Amino acid sequence: GAVVSQHPSRVICKSGTSVKIECRSLDFQATTMFWYRQFPKQSLMLMATSNEGSKATYEQGVEKDKFLINHASLTLSTLTVTSAHPEDSSFYICSAARGPPGETQYFGPGTRLLVL
Amino acid sequence: EDKVVQSPLSLVVHEGDTVTLNCSYEVTNFRSLLWYKQEKKAPTFLFMLTSSGIEKKSGRLSSILDKKELSSILNITATQTGDSAIYLCAVEPYAGNNRKLIWGLGTSLGVNP
């Protein structure tokens, strides 16, 4: 159990376009989902925390108008990178936690974004 | 400021060796410590530790938490080339409904045949 999927796994887009990444918990209901970004040879950087039905909580320095997060249901959260630029190229990973705090977070396989 | 420090940052061993990876933390209101393995994709969950002194084991991997020393170790015995990965340690503090994890930088383990 505890499978999290992400789609797409890889995306290449032109500068200025918007990209939507989906994160789904396949076999459990995720009360909270997290979005991370990871640059090469660096650790995970939390971008935002999203709870179903409420606005996401963004980390300091993360532009909420650029990285739109929607957590429409207990099994789906989406991250939209708006007007993407080459510096947005990164590995985006979501994780999902079921139940109350203290439950393990499970990660999706990640999405590699390359903005040309 | 809460922080998690892992050591060593990088390690190369030969197949069959035993390795010990360290994770120390300074966190207000500790709840749990987690170990993940990251290969080329996203991290996969290994262990969650909440109680001091109780070893968790999965095959050749084991981990234990020491709340007095504010640290944890991850042991891998009889290493194989497939163990080559980055091992990440994270701590979850008590913070109401805030589930934010505090991450270490990871230990990059290379296992040579």
What is the strand tally of chain B? 11
Main sheet makeup of chain A: 7 strands, mixed
β-sheet strand percentage of chain A: over 45%
Radius of gyration of chain A: 13 Å
Category by helix and strand content of chain B: mainly beta
User: Which blocks of ≥5 consecutive residues of chain A have pLDDT under 50?
Assistant: none
Q: How many helices of chain B?
A: 0
What is the ordering of alpha helices and beta strands of chain B? EEEEEEEEEEE
Q: Percent helix among the residues of chain A?
A: under 10%
Strand content of chain B: over 45%
Strand tally of chain A is 11
Rounded to the nearest angstrom, the radius of gyration of chain B is 14 Å
* Helical proportion of chain B, percent range: under 10%
Largest interface in this structure: A-B, 22 and 25 residues
Q: Can you walk me through this structure?
A:
The complex is a heterodimer of chains A (116) and B (113). By secondary structure, chain A is mainly beta. Chain A has strands at 4-7, 10-13, 19-25, 30-38, 45-51, 57-58, 67-73, 76-81, 90-98, 105-107, 111-115. In chain A, strands 2, 4, 5, 6, 9, 10 and 11 form a 7-stranded mixed beta sheet that branches. With 113 residues, chain B is mainly β. Chain B has strands spanning 3-7, 10-14, 19-26, 30-38, 44-49, 56-58, 61-66, 71-76, 85-93, 102-103, 107-112. In chain B, a hairpin with a 4-residue loop joins β7 and β8 (71-76). Chains A and B meet through β5 and β10 of A and β4 and β5 of B.
Provide key terms for this protein.
heterodimer, A: 116 residues, mainly beta, 0% helix, B: 113 residues, 6-stranded mixed sheet, 5-stranded antiparallel sheet
Topology:
The complex is a heterodimer of chains A (116) and B (113).
Chain A: E1 4-7, E2 10-13, E3 19-25, E4 30-38, E5 45-51, E6 57-58, E7 67-73, E8 76-81, E9 90-98, E10 105-107, E11 111-115
Parallel strand pairs in A: 2-11
Antiparallel strand pairs in A: 1-3, 3-8, 4-5, 4-9, 5-6, 7-8, 9-10, 9-11
Chain B: E1 3-7, E2 10-14, E3 19-26, E4 30-38, E5 44-49, E6 56-58, E7 61-66, E8 71-76, E9 85-93, E10 102-103, E11 107-112
Parallel strand pairs in B: 2-11
Antiparallel strand pairs in B: 1-3, 3-8, 4-5, 4-9, 6-7, 7-8, 9-10, 9-11
